[in-house]
Amino acid sequence: MRVDKAKIRNSEESKLPKSSKSSRGSVYTSDFRSEYYNIQVEKLIPFKNQSRKYFDQESIEGLAKTIQEHGIRQPLTVLPSGIKEGFFEVVSGERRLRAAKFAGLNVVPCIIIHDQKQAEEIAIIENIQRKDLHPIELGGAYKNLLDLSICDSAQKIADKLGVHKSAVIESLSLLDLDEGTKNRLIESQIKNRNLLRELCRVDNHNERKLLIDVYLNNKAEQGAQKKALKKVGLRTKAHILNIAFDTTGFVIEKNKINELDELKKAELRVILDNLLGE
């Protein structure tokens, strides 16, 4: 992207707060042309319908170092705020804004748009295209497409974005989880597909909490357990479940599975889900 100095329409300039008119220019790409303004960071607030809830601080600090060395190479896209007069909502580029603040910048380049529906679509599509977006955040973005009548079905969303319909439905179903569970999954960045599916099948909040606890404990202890077992060269075994397959179908022997407490049963459920998902 090339950024050049250029004149800009006075009618557009008059809409900016006086403190924001520090400089202006134009942005050109092969298929896009638009004016941009350098707007003070204190005048920028998150977009009201932002799907992304989690921002990795380490990643932002890394981006801040790049910005300190090379500046912001792609302007943010902003919309005049309907919430706070004289402010702008960041439709695209909140991560860049956070990094710019961390880097100590006072102003950032911004492209101003005025179409609310266009802003919604830009924000949603940009979020969906991010690989690190949590499935719950992705579900929120899909829901916005439906709520704004940009798409009228899961199939239309799948066709528009080039994804499988089943993936769209799965992400939308995660929105039915209670807020506490959703917040914990996002904050812990738990994206295990099998665990998320299991949580959707469970109605009880305490059981959901137990499943997440087991998953996190298992993940944290797995490496340590492997090292310890390798060091001693043995482990105590107790067969609790045998599964075989013959011409008549599956043959299952439960053995001592009924002796497991609820925590161990939940752990076993997660392990089996992981095995089936491999």
UniProtKB/TrEMBL annotation:
Residues 17-26 have a biased composition (Low complexity). GO terms for cellular component: chromosome. GO terms for molecular function: DNA binding. InterPro entries: Chromosome_partition/occlusion, HTH_ParB/Spo0J, ParB/RepB/Spo0J, ParB/Sulfiredoxin_sf, ParB_N. Residues 1-26 are annotated as: Disordered. Belongs to the ParB family. Residues 37-128 form the ParB-like N-terminal domain. The lineage of its organism: Bacteria, Pseudomonadati, Pseudomonadota, Alphaproteobacteria, Rickettsiales. This is Probable chromosome-partitioning protein ParB. Residues 1-16 have a biased composition (Basic and acidic residues). Keywords: Chromosome partition. Pfam families: HTH_ParB, ParB_N. Transmembrane segments: none annotated. It comes from Candidatus Arcanibacter lacustris. GO terms for biological process: chromosome segregation.
